[in-house]
Amino acid sequence: xxxxxVIGGGNAALCAALMAxxxxxxxxxxxxxxxxxRGGNSQHTRNLRCMxxxxxxxxxxxxxxxxxxxxxxxxTGGLTNEHLARLVIRESSTCRDWMRxxxxxxxxxxxxxxxxxxxxxxxxxxxxxxxxxxxxxxxALGVQVRYNAPVDSLELxxxxxxxxxxxxxxxxxxxxxxxxxxFESNREWLREAWGQNERGxxxxxxxxxxxxxxxxxxxxxxxxxxGADGIGDPSQSHCVAIDARAPLYDGGICTRIDCVSLGVVxxxxxxxxxxxxxxxxxxxYAIWGRLTAMQPGQIAYSIIDAKAIxxxxxxxxxxxxxxxxxELAEKLGLDPATFEQTVRQYNASCRVGKFDHxxxxxxxxxxxxxxxxxxxxxxxxxxFYGYALRPGITFTYLGLKVDDTAAVRFNDVPSDNLFVAGxxxxxxxxxxxxxxxxxxxxxxxxxxxxxxxxxxAARRQHSAGAFHExx
Length: 471
Fold this sequence. Notes:
oxidoreductase, FAD/NAD(P)-binding domain, FAD, 2 domains, alpha+beta, CobZ, Flavocytochrome C3, Chain A, domain 1, Succ_DH/fumarate_Rdtase_cat_sf
């Protein structure tokens, strides 16, 4: 029997496994995916949002706790637990040295990501390199890792963990950390969560899955059915507007369309439906998937002109181009007359001051609904570009309720040996909305807490002398 069983294979799971092992516990990590697809959604990440009171290595200026909290409060609309959110924020200021000790390297942000140069620390080589570094470190420390090991149920005694089951196999442990992700790859559960809209459509049928195909929510559903306290709205998620040509699974960051704030977005009826310049893109990119999901056919189109080229991170697929607006409409399958009228009305309403995409500038619209409050410039310079958008689900926010010990709760009573981290509890901090890098902050903070607590729980069950010696 191992001391600590970690179920999951992404950032939160790996942080838990490493912390438990560093505390002297023997650790077994079960990853549902095969080795080549290990890492869950963490393999698609780029950075970690970090609090810091002064410039630090790759981070410029300062990003104090209160500003971080206000950013989170704004995007969640208050649907967040302030105590747990501030715990995550404070942990983000001290975790990077620990990450480096386990092989994670950081780099300054690329030019297309300068908006977050002050707030986010970028991983050298991206999330895949981070995941690989953690696995190397875990294995070097003696953590056992099993791939192709999807746990389908747990054996519980009241609120205590006894064993995990993979089919007919039973795996006992003195303590357990659940970090197996949300249900974003479970189409039936997404359909149930989103339901049918007033047009008779099932919006979830048109969702693409930005991340891993292995996050089916099996353990999340098991725990909720077993009476664990839940939190969050099943329809809320990290949902990004991505290229409609993206693959069904694992498209990752390169399928995101980042030019939204530089132009206009129209729906299938060639009409605008939201303020494209509401705030900086890293604070607003994750609302556009849900906005697109609410449109007819769950599709939208990001439209820019030649002036925007070079001002955003180019996506993996080139945009549809045309020398005239009617030609672009034809190529996108939009009604040319309506499209041209929408763009003409937008152009006429633009009040262009000093354009500055690095600031909340004074370029805005007047007399237009919805307004565009920043970066409003006429779309008038050929060639014109269009990108078809679909909702891209990264991870879901329905999860298990926790306190600052990361313990799973049953009727508000915390388990003494079952803990949870990552997507399976992110809804405590993210009731809705998103700001870049905060998912990794939550996973890192609660993964480290859960691993430490699980090792302590195992120690309580078993005398310290019986702990396996660290490798």
